[in-house]
Amino acid sequence: MVITPSGADDRPTMHVLPEPMLDLAHVRVRSGPHKPELLADEFFMLAHDDQSGRPRLPHSSITFGLAAALLAELGSARWIHFERGDLTILDRRAPDDWLQHQVLAQLIASPQHTATRTWLAYLAATSYDLVAKRLLQAGMVRPVPYRRMFKTVTVYEPTDMNVAAWSWARLVGSLRDLEPLDTFDLALAGIAREVRLDQWILQGTSHASTAYLRQLLAEAPPPMRDLLAALNAAIGNAVMSHRT
Amino acid sequence: MSSSPPDAVSAVLARGRLGTFAVVFFVIAAAAPLTVVAGGATTGYAVTGVVGIPVSYLVVAAVLALFSVGYVAMSRRIVNAGAFYTYVTRGLGKPAGVATALIAVVGYNAMQIGLYGGFGAVLAAYLDGRGWHTTWWLCALAGWAVVSVLGVLRIDLNGVVLAGMLVAEVVIALVYDVVMVSHPAGGTVTFDTLAPSHILAAGIGAALVTAITGFVGFEGTTVFAEETKDPKRTVPRATYVAVAITGLLYGGSAWAMSVATGPDKIVDAASTDGTDLIFNLVSPHLAQSIITAGRILFITSLFAALLSFHHTVARYLFALGRERVLPAVLGRTSRRTGAPKWGSITQSTLALAVIFAYAFVDADPIVHLFFWVTVTGGLGVLILMTVTSAAVVAFFARAQNTDGPWRTILAPILATAALGTILTVTISQFDTLLGVEPASQLRWLFPAAYGVAALIGLVWALVLRSSRPDVYQVIGLGADAATAAQHVSDPVHQPA
């Protein structure tokens, strides 16, 4: 019998608004350490502990979430469009970001595959390493060997905890106060909800926040809802076919 | 299915996909061979008093092979070909699909919970033989605790471990078979219990459903379709190989036992020895270590089956929760482990209640829990197969037909007729199956559970149709339900 790597951080209580965080959230920082632009980077940060870099989710959930975030990066900048479970390419010009460029090039190279589900499954195979590489290059994380039960794995430890926690602080602040989310944060919250990270983000907030997020996502732009539905199905199927 | 040439995307998606033997392993392992041979067949002899158990296994294998012809052909035509109820939804409509799904939930639960009786009693007897005095329900509770924890943590038996256990179980069963056949009662090997004439004998319905119970992992072949290297070839091949191997192994082992005791004494011997029968029969001729190995494998086999059916039920509930046919909470996963947490907890809670109830009324764990409840589970699976087979007929009556009349008309009709006959005979002889008086209320109580489940399913589907059309629309799509609100695009599983 092999223990499924739970991969979860064992200290959730750390995140129930610890002291420094409490201050941060309390004053509802409107200008954070940086203005996030890359959705996959922010989801990566959200899905890992802001101090230790250890994952908060099962690995497969993170890889699917990252795959969806990579597609959403291209979608929000109108390179691609999501409709009825398929994605279509709108713009073939190369994005500036090398990873977006690489993903778009793959989409262009295999036009016979149009189902968003197929691309999520494909990108999930490499999304983790690629996004980690992009974060490394940006100096936002550093690789640290971490010894688990039988093997040593690399975790990516955030170089700056405030940067790492910024997306979480922004989301929880807005959702707690029932303030509108911009498209970027809405997509981030949507992906987080599909991988069940919403429970963790919203812990300590009232039931109204949960309902508010649900309402925001129900009213999200149709392409975003389409991408999130594909992510939902991908995660669900991963549960159905899980074996160790 | 895309007909494009292999490309980078398909190549990445094909990684880690299953070949024929992997699928065969998973399917056979779900039924756990030693559980069937040492537990199901022996108790079947004892409770039903029918000597035609061996031929029943062979007949059921043949009927299932026939059923597979149309079933596999249909699996290639529908998106998200997963569980039986998907087929029923596509063939007979959504109300029938929901009814079938609920029958499946009851049936697989019965299968899993009944196994606790076998596991508890066999483990208690084993420990008793080593001077540890305990009760069956304590052992069952220990097994329950482990299964419950593994269920919520989403820990399955590792494929390698499962394959190793499976091979060991099959080898042990074959060794025992050879020993039993080479030491026949009265010095001559007889084939009485394999005679086709038993098919017409009284109580054969009981024997046939006992045999069906041994093939419950069967639903698994097309569940794996999305994960196989080449669904068009892997799934049919795996299905036929699994049916042939299990049919021959179960039928052969049940026959070997009757050779060792003599066909006229097998029922008495099984009544006296219970699940010890096969071990008692071979112990004079084999080293003690091989007997002990067999006993331990019997226990691990029961455990593997418990865990496997627990996951099956949890995933069923999860899929139905995702569709919102059942409460949406069942379709949620645990954040930490990704397990279908509430499906798992629901199953465990139900099992715990049944174990406590049996312990409280002091019922016999082998006859009243293991045999009664697992064959009731077997009856559920038989109903599922019969309805699914009818759904295959209905589906091909409407669909564009390119597979030829044998696969799409003849075989499905013959299979439906055969399964329907077995079902009718089984229900009419349920008293024999339970070993109770023909006037007993129990003979109707167990089958009635499925009638109730089906009725609830039908009514619920009709309620959904009028009150929640969005939910009604996605019935049968399982985990894909979320995408269906927009449109279901057929994701590429595989280049053909």
- Unreliable runs of chain B: 1-5, 487-496
> How many β-strand runs of chain B?
0
Overall, the morphology of chain B is globular
Please name the two chains that share the biggest interface, counting residues whose Cβ lies under 8 Å from a Cβ on the partner chain: A-B, 51 and 51 residues
Computed Rg of chain A: 17 Å
Order of helices and strands of chain A: HHHEEHHHEEHHHHH
Query: What is the CA-atom radius of gyration of chain B, in angstroms?
Result: 22 Å
The fold-level CATH name of chain A is: yeast vps74-n-term truncation variant fold
State the end-to-end distance of chain A.
8 Å
What does the overall shape of chain A look like?
globular
Query: What is the CA–CA distance across the termini of chain B?
Result: 7 Å
Write down the CATH class of chain B. Answer: Mainly Alpha
Could you characterize the architecture of this molecule?
The complex is a heterodimer of chains A (244) and B (496). Chain A has eleven helices and four strands, in the order αααββαααββααααα. Chain A has 244 residues and is mainly alpha-helical. Chain A has a single domain, classed as yeast vps74-n-term truncation variant domain like (yeast vps74-n-term truncation variant fold), CATH 1.10.3630. In chain A, a hairpin with a 2-residue loop joins β1 (80-83) and β2. In chain A, α2 crosses α7 (161-176), α3 (59-76) runs antiparallel to α8 (183-194) and α5 (116-124) packs across α11 (222-240). Chain A is globular and about 40 Å long. Chain B has one domain: Amino acid/polyamine transporter I (Up-down Bundle), CATH 1.20.1740. In chain B, 60% of the residues are buried. At the A-B interface, α5 and α11 of A face α1, α14 and α21 of B.
